[in-house]
Amino acid sequence: MQDDTHAPPEVAARLLRRLVHADMRYAALGDFEELFSERVRRDGLAAARRWYWSEVFKSLPAFFLDACRWRLVMLRNHLKVARRNLARHKGYTFTNVYPLCRARLRRATFR
Question: For the residues 32-47, what does the mean pLDDT come to?
Answer without folding.
Answer: 94
